[in-house]
Design goal:
The complex is a heterodimer. Chain A is of the alpha+beta class. Chain A is built from 14 helices and 27 strands. In chain A, helix 2 packs across helix 3, helix 11 packs antiparallel against helix 12 and helix 11 packs parallel to helix 13. The N terminus and C terminus of chain A are likely disordered. The N and C termini of chain B lie far apart (about 60 Å). The chains are: A alpha+beta, B mainly alpha.
């Protein structure tokens, strides 16, 4: 059945200036920034020397902060202050890091998230990631010749709420105008799918430096629908390097090594791993600071042997994702490989054997995620052309629930639910006269509270005393398109309410973000108030323009009075825009937003009716 | 407000009945998401963004409910004022229960022995029974005078789906261990 064509709801009648939009792949090993050029081609932005990658390494040196290749040079000379693979620590406490001993860092436990002691003080993974993001932002801004308007940052699909929130905080700290967190395999599917115009069911097998994702997607006429996702947010190319490192220590009978030597051997391990993608053996030659000389040759077959169980470890999530999607390996139209670690022959062989088909490798596994993110940023910023009408429907990777009596978890939102999702469930009181209820929010698949990740706790107080079981407490979970959760609770008989945006257990507090932002502005000698006013103006222009275009398209949905009220609010906004006061401008924006609520609802309803108009009209009630 | 009074079937322009044209559901779902999804309103004001979030969540919930055979039956009964999973009446047919308990035992034994073949066969058997239970349920629910037995059949269908999921997990457990080969 042919569908009637409908205009995009926020499409503007007049041509709006092109906005500067970037997609950022914040990787464990390497990061990239990409954009969609005016001719519609997505490109990675390279540095002056033509290098597309930014190694995700931050060096807190005596002279200041270095990022990327500059920082990489200090890895072996100053390992304690040169932070690599920091993505592994995002949203994690010290107890979560089973592999903490692998790193030469001085970790300290801090409320919420582990921190690292550096020359520049204690740094949280969020701050370190923000330094990487700042470098990417600077690269883009110098090439654009001006500030960025819109950014999409990618995260592993299997990142939980705490890890996503940490990434969002890092983007905020780096001053990126973040429109969306996008799952890495989904970004890759967009880049691949749009480039090759494919349809059907595809698996994206994404093995990065420190994270593994598998997503199963259905591509139908411009809709990218994630059917299921699974993975392991602490499994990646780093683990292969470490296996080789352990093999070297054993084969060369090396006693415990210093942090400097460990870093050097790990780098040699990575070189050997990379060499084995095209050779049958790789030499490993080094002289340690103790004077011990190492001369080894790692053969491809030994490498295959010592890394076999890591390769196998990726296949269990693949099986689970297929089962959740209700599919068999043979049902797939293609398997896309993403992430530098998928260059390994061991991975390609294992994937080919599992799916019974050769994986698709006609794309750059390092760049495809950033390119997809740039396409999404471009679309969200409103730059897309008429023929680029596509949409992503993603899912939540891990179930969300609440603690109930006996330390058990009651699931509210199941894994692989399509986003956004809102789910409610009723609970009741346990004791007679109970006036408060503790609400403990958890994420994970296991039944016991102790086996799931605690996302936060809050209390609903002021429940009137009733006999046990009489109160009706409705708890609502809402997960937005970024995969971030907010929870609210309401006692139905009295209307008592409480709500949180879930971030207390693992995220940084809002006040801490504000403090860090202030500090970073001081360091950058930036004028905070000028920046705040600038942002408020951008917001104001944006809202005013969106409202005017909505009026131009759908003014017939309003009575004359309603229309006059909205126009008056726009006029007040315009006059506030002329003054240099951020707070009155914000107030005017809020007022306009309130004034357009009913209008927005009617427009949405019209859109829904139009969307169905091309379909069986007689069956509509 | 977006018209939240329409039921899930009406939302997608589908007839209110158990028999489902899956491709019609999916087409309508995608057409609606193209309109309401928050990504389509990234450039709008906050009111429109909040609306988009609510509307897209509603469309997702409606789609998920109708696409699932058990949830669709339960929902259809709820529209008729019947609670299929009323906790005061959880009785199941004795023969049905015995058959499933026997299957659970066979599944546990096969899992113990690592007999994936037996588990696969059992899964097939459960899925076949589930498919025929769906057909039977459909003719009851869509009959001009709905049968009072349909509540029990919905519960049986849920039981079968749960069993199939558990057996599927056992197959996964049997094939993915041991980690070291």
């Amino acid at each position: 059945m042919a569908l009637m064509q409908i205009a995009e709801p926020d499409e503007l009648p007049q041509k709006r200036p092109r906005r500067r939009a970037i997609g950022v792949d914040l990787g464990t090993t390497n990061s990239l920034v990409a954009t969609v050029r005016e001719d519609g081609i997505a490109v990675v932005l390279s540095d002056d020397e033509g290098r597309p990658l930014v190694p995700s390494i931050v060096h807190y040196g005596p002279e200041g902060v270095e990022v990327g290749y500059d920082a990489a040079r200090s890895q072996t000379s100053d390992p304690h202050n040169t932070l690599v693979s920091v993505k592994r620590f995002m949203g994690r406490g010290l107890a979560d890091l089973s592999d903490a001993r692998r790193f030469p860092y001085r970790f300290v436990e801090a409320p919420g998230m582990v921190r690292v002691v550096t020359r520049a003080g204690e740094k949280s993974p969020v701050e370190i990631s923000a330094d990487i993001l700042r470098a990417l932002r600077a690269r883009a801004e110098s090439q654009f010749g001006g500030p960025i308007d819109a950014a999409v940052v990618t995260v592993p699909a299997y990142f939980d709420d705490a890890q996503r929130q940490a990434t969002k905080d890092a983007a905020k700290l780096a001053g990126l105008p973040l429109l969306r967190l996008l799952n890495e395999p989904t970004a890759a599917a967009v880049a691949y799918g749009l480039d090759h115009g494919v349809e059907g069911v595809y698996a994206v097998y994404d093995l990065g430096g420190g994270t593994f994702d598998i997503s199963i997607l259905k591509l139908t006429r411009g809709i990218f629908e994630v059917l299921a996702t699974n993975g392991d947010s602490a499994l990646g190319g780093d683990d292969f390097d470490h296996r080789v490192f352990c093999w070297i220590l054993e084969a060369a009978k090396v006693p415990p090594v210093s942090a400097e030597d460990a870093r050097r051997l790990l780098l040699l391990s990575r070189d050997a791993k990379e060499m084995l993608t095209g050779h049958e053996s790789a030499p490993i030659v080094a002289t340690l600071s103790t004077g011990q000389r190492i001369e080894l040759s790692l053969t491809a077959s030994t490498f295959t042997e010592i890394t076999r169980n890591i390769v196998d470890k990726t296949l269990a999530p693949v099986r689970r994702a297929l089962r959740d999607a209700g599919l068999k390996p043979a049902d797939l139209d293609g398997v896309v490989l993403v992430g530098g670690a998928t260059r390994m022959r061991e991975i390609r062989r294992a994937v080919a054997a599992f799916f019974g088909q050769a994986p698709l490798t006609n794309l750059d596994p390092d760049e495809v995620v950033a390119l997809g993110a740039a396409m999404q940023a471009n679309a969200l910023a409103g730059n897309r052309g008429k023929d680029e009408d596509w949409l992503l429907l993603d899912v939540i990777p891990l179930s969300l629930g609440l603690e109930t009596i006996g330390g058990l978890v009651e699931k509210i939102v199941p894994r692989n639910a399509t986003l956004p999702v809102t789910r409610s469930q009723s609970f009741t009181t346990w004791r007679d006269g109970q006036t408060a209820m503790a609400i403990h929010v958890l994420q994970g698949e296991r039944e016991r509270v102790d086996d799931c990740r605690s996302l936060g706790r809050f209390e609903l107080r002021g429940i009137p005393p009733m006999v046990a079981g009489a109160a009706r407490i409705l708890v609502t979970f809402q997960v937005d398109a970024d995969g971030l959760l907010s929870v609210s609770a309401r006692e139905e008989t009295t209307g008592v309410e409480a709500s949180i945006t879930v971030k207390p257990s693992y995220g940084l507090g809002d006040d801490e973000i504000a403090r860090l932002l202030r500090e970073s502005f001081e360091h950058a000698a930036d004028d905070m108030s000028v920046r705040v006013l600038g942002e408020a103006r951008v917001d104001a222009d944006h809202v005013a323009m969106a409202t005017e275009s909505a009026l131009a398209a759908d003014a017939d949905l309003l009575s004359q009075d309603e229309r006059a009220a909205i126009e008056a609010a726009v006029a007040r906004l315009r006059s506030a825009r002329a003054r240099d006061d951020a707070s009155s401008l914000r107030a005017a924006v809020d007022a306009l937003n309130r004034a357009t609520e009913v209008f927005a609802a009617r427009r949405m309803d019209r859109g829904v009716r139009q969307a169905l108009a091309g379909r069986a009209i007689d069956s509509l009630a | 407000m977006l018209d939240f009074t329409r039921n899930h079937f009406e939302l997608f322009g589908l007839p209110v009945r158990y028999a489902l044209d899956e491709s019609a559901l999916d087409d309508a779902y995608r057409a609606l998401q193209r309109t309401v999804h928050p990504d389509r309103h990234a450039g709008s004001d906050d009111a429109a963004k909040r609306m988009a979030l609510q509307a897209a969540a509603r469309v997702n919930e409606a789609h998920r409910t109708l696409a699932d055979p058990v949830d669709r039956a339960r929902y259809l009964l709820s529209l008729r004022g019947v609670d299929a999973f009323d906790e005061t009446d959880t009785a199941l047919d004795v023969d049905f229960l015995e058959r499933q308990l026997d299957r659970r035992e066979r599944a546990a034994e096969a899992a113990e022995a690592g007999d994936t073949g037996a588990l696969e066969a059992l899964l097939d058997e459960v899925r076949r029974e589930s498919a025929s239970a769906q057909t039977a349920l459909g003719s009851m629910l869509d009959a001009p005078t709905p049968s009072s037995e349909s509540r029990g059949r919905v519960r049986e269908l849920r039981f079968l789906d749960k069993l199939a999921g558990d057996v599927d997990e056992m197959i996964d457990g049997a094939t993915s261990s041991p980690a070291w080969r």
